[in-house]
Amino acid sequence: MTYKVLVLKGDGIGPEVVSEAVQVLKVVARRCGVDFNFEEAIVGGAAIDAYGVPLRPETLKLATESDAVLFGAVGGPKWDDPRAAHRPEQALLTLRKELGLYANLRPVKTMKELASASPLKPEVINGTDLLVLRELTGGLYYGKPSERRTTEKGREAVDTCFYTEEEIARAVRLGFELARARRKRLTLVDKANILSTSRLWREVATEISQQNKDVAFETVLVDAMAMHLLQRPKDFDVIVTENMFGDILTDEASLLAGSMGLLPSASLGEELNSAGYRIGLYEPIHGTAPDIAGRDRANPLAAILSAAMMLEYSFGMRAEAEWIENAVAAVLREGYRTPDLASPGAKIVGCKAMGRLVREHLERMEPES
Length: 369
Ligand code: IPM
Ligand code: MG
Prior knowledge:
Layout: E1 2-10, H1 14-32, E2 35-40, H2 45-51, H3 57-64, E3 68-73, H4 89-98, E4 103-109, H5 122-125, E5 129-135, E6 143-151, E7 154-160, H6 165-180, E8 185-190, H7 196-210, E9 216-221, H8 222-231, E10 238-241, H9 243-257, E11 264-272, E12 278-284, H10 301-315, H11 318-333, E13 336-337, E14 347-348, H12 351-364
Parallel strand pairs: 1-2, 1-3, 3-12, 5-10, 8-9, 8-10, 13-14
Antiparallel strand pairs: 4-5, 4-11, 6-7, 11-12
Helix pairs in contact: 1-10, 1-12, 6-7, 8-9, 10-11, 11-12
Bound molecules: 3-isopropylmalic acid and magnesium ion.
The site of magnesium ion has 2 residues, from helix 9.
């Protein structure tokens, strides 16, 4: 089997972390009898510099013709002018919308070895294993109008939160499906005491829960959830929520794992690829970290774990994904850490060395099938 993978490294630390992930996929290809045909294109700030736009139509076309997309990160101070006509982040928003990637899966697991890297108490976070399903193509990110105006009273701006019943239902249904394969608990996070869209989310999710009675269903208000996530993270299994709440809560949840540099994500659509699985875009949840870009200090593990999610969700290679996860865990157990996870006694390594350590472990271990 040959799969087409589009590699979009982006800005800042994107290129260095994605390079390590690509090299991991090459080991998988060699050991597991699959072939990845990697194509690469420029996106984000780098594309604004080179072509004047964050995402060229050619690149979008390449993405739609690929079996999966591996993405780094986009943005940086250089392109931060709020009045600029083009912003690097538009590349990501357009890709998500045009590829129909409505479900953003962000797993958060606490590893005992890393508990000391979190500012939270080990007894609170140890054993956390949750999955946030963030709706990714609706809500405030895409609602119209979204604009800034000047009236005689001064400047004003508006953003619109909009959801259809079908957009909500497909995310919630996938949430139940995922929960069924895990610990069978689903938490809907909303702001139903204030927002009409949240009340619709709650209504639709409650209806769908009636057909999924084997999964325990609860609703939690987003402000309370911001607290519960830090107070009792172990109580949650699958958390489903709208776009903006999911964006905010997953940065918060990254503290449970120790560092943003560890958290991968998968953005899935309904369309199937040549392998018969969902097309997807896979990216670390961290940003471009311009302060450490190009200095071999970034943590490539989130990008490597995103490549593992690609194997699982877009190619049906669950055993191989686990093989990578186990290699990452083994390297961390041996005490190797990138600077973001530095703790007393840790063996500090750079981005490249961390990637190499993971690959060395893969070479020594067998993929289980
Ligand atoms: C994320 C990021 C993006 C988002 C930005 C870069 C557009 O914060 O993936 O969480 O807000 O969705
Ligand atoms: Mg974010």
